[in-house]
Amino acid sequence: MNMHMRAIMGCIILGISLMISACGGNTSAPTARGSVVFEIGSDGDTLTFKPNALNVSAGQQVTIVVKDNSSSLQHNWVLIRGGANVAQKIATAGLTAGADKNYLLNDPANIIANSPLLSAGQTADVTFTAPEAGTYIFICTVPVHFPQMQGVLTVSEH
Questions:
Q1: What is the rounded distance in angstroms from the CA atom of residue 155 to the CA atom of residue 158?
Q2: Do you find a cis peptide bond into 51, omega within 30 degrees of 0?
Q3: How far is 127 from 65, CA to CA, in rounded Å?
Q4: Which of 24, 53, 126, 140 would bridge 64 by S-S if both were Cys, CB 3.0 to 4.6 A apart?
Q5: Using an 8 Å Cβ cutoff, are 151 and 42 in contact?
Q6: What residues does each domain of the chain span?
Q7: In this structure, are strands 61-67 and 35-42 parallel, antiparallel, or unpaired?
Q8: What is the pLDDT of residue 5?
Q9: How do residues 70-105 score in pLDDT, each as one tens digit?
Q10: What would the DSSP string read from start to end of 76-123?
Q11: pLDDT-based confidence at residue 14 (cuts at 50, 70, 90)
Q12: May I ask the CATH class of domain 28-156?
């Protein structure tokens, strides 16, 4: 077999190997309707979430493990349906609701998911099904934490 034929055969074998591995699936990656877990928390005593951007697929089961990493501040995690104006209304309404109600009014219309109010060092799991494709804001509704303490959940079609 000459050099040219060996090169062609090598390319064919490589191509077949790549196709087989691509079709074989990767069990470590979530499927569009599979589940995914994210760890998110307050970034120390700053009024920020870390990470502040998450990406999922529509219909995917999502678990957010929320941790209050501050030394003394309370925080929650609230995923909002709607833009910044809706988030502002929910955060403002939280002032009226107070700590005993997690700084949330009993109107879940624009709240997709939320954690309980956490004290320093506490952790909570929040599980929900990702909504339709789009961009969603998550915030902390503890007074004066929003608008600084927010992030974005981007939901793709698949």
A1: 8
A2: yes
A3: 9
A4: 126
A5: no
A6: 28-156
A7: parallel
A8: 44
A9: 999 999 999 999 899 999 999 999 888 999 999 998
A10: --EEESS-HHHHHHHHHHHHHH-GGGTT--S-GGGEEEEPPPB-TT-E
A11: very low
A12: mainly beta
Q: How far apart are alpha carbons 68 and 43 in whole angstroms?
A: 8
- Contact yes or no for 80/139 (Cβ under 8 A): yes
- Per-residue tokens: 100: 């005993």
In the sheet with 53-57, reading across from the earlier edge strand, the strands are 53-57, 150-156, 134-139, 78-80, 111-114
- What three-state secondary structure class fits 38? strand
For the beta sheet containing 35-42, the strands, ordered from the edge strand earlier in sequence to the opposite edge, are: 49-50, 35-42, 61-67, 123-129
**What's phi and psi for 110, nearest 5 deg?**
-115, 15
Measured from the Cβ of residue 146, the count of other Cβ atoms closer than 10 Å reads 22
Side-chain-facing half-sphere of 84: CA atoms under 13 Å: 6
Structure tokens at 125: 């799991």
Residue recorded with tokens 């624009």: 110
Q: What percent of the chain has pLDDT over 90?
A: 72
